[in-house]
Structure formats: C-alpha cells, structure tokens
Amino acid sequence: MNIGISKNLPSTIKTIVIPISETDLKTIDFQKIAQDFGLNDLFFKDDFKGELGEVQVIYGSTAKVILLGLGKKMVFAKILKVFRILSKKQVKFLSPKLGLSLVHGSLNETEPKLLEAAINGLFLGIYKIGRFKTKEAEAHPFSNEEAQLHILADDNPTLQQASHNGKAFATTQMKIMDLVNAPSNKKLPVDLGNWARNSGEEWDIPVEVWDKQKIEEEGMGGLLAVNQGSYHPPTFIIMDYQPKSGEAKKTIGLVGKGVTFDTGGLSLKPSAGMPLMKSDMGGAAAVLGAVEMAAKLQLPYRVVGVVPSTDNSVGSNSFKPSDVINSYSGKTIEIIDTDAEGRLILADGLSYMVKKYQPDVMLDLATLTGSTVRTLGYHAAGLFTKNYELRDALLEAGDAVGERLWPLPMWDEYHEEMQSDVADIKNLGTRPMAGGITAAKFLEFFTEEHEQWAHLDIAGVAFADAEFSKQKSATAYGLRLIIEFLKSLK
C-alpha cells in the first residue's frame, strides 16, 4: 500500500476518515466538512459524540466520510487501538483508496507521533490470525498492491517519517505475531533461527544460528539441560545490527526467552492452560523484532539480540528436580522445579552477552512467571532493575507507547531464598511467594553485576485477550517499548 501526503485530495479517493475527540467536538468545523465532501446537511453533527471507537458513516456527493471517535484523551496506545479496530472490525466501510484528514479533525500536523499510531493501527488491521485455516479469508482492501492511503495535510519530512514508521512497525509486528501465534509443531527452535536468517538477509544484519553441536562446544549447560527431554534440537541465535554510517553510540544487548513450547517438563503443568504455552517465546519474538526494527530505522546504536531456544518437553532423558547442572558462566545450578526452565536458558544468554559483547545497556525479555501476572494482571509487565535511571527511562518509554511496565523490588534479601546447599544457586525460591522477584534475582546472578541491566517479565502482556481474536493471541508487546527506549538514549 502506497502512502501519499498533500492537501490536494486525489480524485481517486472516495472514502475519507476524519478522527475527532470528545474534547474537540465543539471546535470542529462541521460546516467545512460538509462543504468539502458534498454533505447536504449537518444533522449528523448532533448524533456524533466523539466517544472512543465511535464510528459514523456519512455519504456525500463527492466522498464517503467516516467520523471516528478518539475519546476524551488522545494518547498513542488508544489512537493505535481505535484505528486498528476500524481497520479490522469496520473494514466494510473502507476501500483500497482511503483518505485520512489532518485538516478537518482532531489529529493535526503538530502531533506526528499520533499520526504514526493511526497508520500503525490501520496496517495492523490487515493481520489475520488464521494462517492454518483451509478456507482463505476475504482479502483486506489494504493488502492490494495498488491500494493507496492519502494523508490530507501539508507534506513535510516529519509526517513522511511518521507515516513510514507506522507502516514499518506494523510489518514487523505482524511477523512476530505470526511467530508467537504459531502452534509448537509449526514453530521449532530451527524455525526461529530461520526467521532471524531471513530478517538478516533482508535488512543486512549479521546472523549466527548455532546448532546443538556448537551449543555443546560452547558449554551452554542451561539450554542443553532444558532440551534434554526434547526430540527437537536447540538453537542459539545471535543477530548483530550495526549502523551503516558512523560509529555506534552505544552497544545495547537484548536477550529473549525462546521456549517454543513449555510442558513444564517433569514438573508438569496443569492441562487446562497448557495450549497457551506455545507463546512462551514471546520474549524471543520481541528481541528478534527489535533488532529488525533497529535496522529498518537505522538507529545509531549497535543492537545485539541473543535468543536461546528450545522446547521444554517430557522424555526419558528429561532433566529432573534435584539435578545439578552447569551453565555457560561456569556456575552450577540445583534444579528444584523443571518448570522454572526459562531462567536456565536466559542465564546462558545473559552470561554470553556480558562476556562476548560487554553491552552498555542489557535488557532481557521473557514470559517468565505466573507470579508477575498475579501481581500486575494483564495491563503491565514487571520491571526489575537496581538502576533507577534505567528504570525511569524504561517506564517513560512504556508509557509513551502504551506498553506499560511497573517496577518491583530487587533487594538482596530476596536472593537468600535462592541459595543452595549443593550448588552455587537453585532455580526456584524456597517459599511460594514473590516468585517474579526471586526469578529476577536468579537472572541477576548471571549478569556479572552489570550496572545497566533490567529484566522485563512480560508473561501477562505478550499473549492476551483482545478484540482481534476469539482466544488469547499475540500482542507484539515489547517491540515498540524497546525501540522507544533506544530512541531516548543519550
């Protein structure tokens, strides 16, 4: 779909979206809307309230006008959601050649970030979750190669960039949503590696995908232990984006949990929620997508993404509670619960990142604990760091794009619960409480006291209920958060 910007509406555009907020309702020039699009009367202005997601369609002599309610407060996440709902749920009103007015409504040229959100939402409306259905769904009007989106505004580089970003984000978001939504038999560790390779080829990002032999040679004991019960070999994925012009300002290390399916191992999960465990690589998807987006946007930072990947299955060779395993760092781990497996593979990833790349900032993202979900529900991810400056920057980035975080304590007293009699550390706390915090303390043990490290537990937000699917589905959480954070770096 092509995007154009000008104050001259092409004659081919017969459908125009005018977004209007509740607070701007009294200041909108409905008379101008009527004149510009051949509306015979103004009865509609009394019916339209501007409520969030409200849609009113008016047919004029020159165009079909869609009034779209933005609610009381215009913020990025709500704008994105409203436009995605329009594109997905009200698609019958849309056409392959669509106009979006920044002249007549509440969105205007002074808020390019909100335009980016609107375009991001429109393109996300194309996404179809039913990749494996035998009956193909009706094509979205925007999926047509000749489709056109025309933004009614004065053309300028800022709006061009916002338009480009909105579309670019949607493309990568849909790709990682496909990954997370895919069933485990269609999403093996090697498939995550192939995704990284394909992305690397498209965006000129160096990529390494280690096979099991290489993983054994490197001594990735945590990853190998979790993989013991699986028929499918593990992978260890490295994507290393570096800016093409000039020296990178900083090196950012991203580590993502890539468990493609989690049965819990011998500490078997209850069957009721187990189908959702295909999403246990949501952190990996966010990391892979973030490296791709850094390349798309040509950010001035080196962004290294590391993804250890395996499933956690039950087999005759499964690792067991009471086992003591080695890790890449050389530290030993006592296994208390095989369902606390994500932290084992992240331990190897974090240790490798610190040793190999010495990043200035290091983040890990993982669908790690039910404890964090019970604490924060489905509206925020858990944020764990001792660095208050890093904490505040991540909180600000999350609030800006609607991918919220909430900090939880990282006091050293919680580490006492992770002490083992037979190994350097155990993989589960002694008490059935503060599980998200003790998991973070376990990970901290493998960061070599990195001063700018943060752990993001995204278990409640990477795979959630939404208007766009009948069951829980991927949200692409973390992608926008990471990129917004990177843009804020000094």
Notable traits:
14 helices, 490 residues, Aminopeptidase, 9-stranded mixed beta sheet, Leucine Aminopeptidase, subunit E, domain 1
Notes on the protein architecture:
With 490 residues, this protein is α/β, with parallel strands linked by helices. It has two domains: 2-153, Leucine Aminopeptidase, subunit E, domain 1, CATH 3.40.220; 171-488, Zn peptidases (Aminopeptidase), CATH 3.40.630. 34% of the residues lie in helices and 19% in strands. It contains 14 helices and 20 strands. The chain has helices spanning 30-37, 44-47, 76-89, 112-124, 157-181, 189-203, 212-218, 221-227, 282-296, 342-357, 370-376, 388-401, 435-444, 479-488; strands at 2-6, 15-20, 55-59, 64-69, 97-101, 148-152, 207-210, 235-241, 251-256, 258-262, 302-312, 324-326, 332-334, 361-366, 381-384, 405-407, 425-426, 453-457, 463-464, 473-474. Strands 7, 8, 9, 10, 11, 14, 15, 16 and 18 form a nine-stranded mixed β-sheet that branches. Strands 1-6-5-2-4-3 form a six-stranded mixed β-sheet, with helices on one face. A hairpin with a 5-residue loop joins strand 12 and strand 13 (332-334). Helix 8 (221-227) packs antiparallel against helix 10 and helix 9 crosses helix 14. It starts with a strand and ends with a helix. The mean pLDDT is 96.
Hey, roughly how much beta strand do the residues contain?
15-25%
Which spans of ≥5 residues are poorly predicted at pLDDT below 50? Answer: none
Would you tell me the overall average pLDDT? 96
SS-based class: alpha/beta
Concise synopsis of the structure shown:
With 490 residues, the protein is α/β, with parallel strands linked by helices. 34% of the residues lie in helices and 19% in strands.
